[in-house]
Amino acid sequence: MATVRIPTPLRKFTQGKDEVSVAGTNVREIITNLEANYPGIRERICDDAGAVRRFVNVFVGDEDIRFLDSLDTSVKDNDEVSIVPAIAGGA
Fold it and tell me: Could you say which residues of the chain have pLDDT below 50?
């Protein structure tokens, strides 16, 4: 199983856990199984079309899935998947 790192704003879905173990061979399966275990989390990660929301970044290891195979990016056991909300701001 992969370890999924959960950002603070989404921990209300994971009973406060900052990391959860989730099975899946690609990011799409990881998100599907994450939703099965923690209902409501997928809509915070993906839009209505099923794509990762514009202001959410997903990494497998250190690689942004937008520069790999997006939701079809392979995930192996012991991989770390990080969900990172984009931070915007300025002066």
Answer: none
Our CA angle for 8, 77, 45, nearest 5°, is 35
- How far is Cα 63 from Cα 59, in angstroms, rounded to an integer? 5
SS3 at position 3: strand
| This prediction's pTM | 0.91
Per CATH, the number for 2-85 is: 3.10.20.30
Q: How far apart are the first and last CA of the chain?
A: 42
Q: Where are the domains of the chain?
A: 2-85
For the chain, how are helix, strand and coil distributed in percent, rounded to 5?
Answer: 25, 25, 45
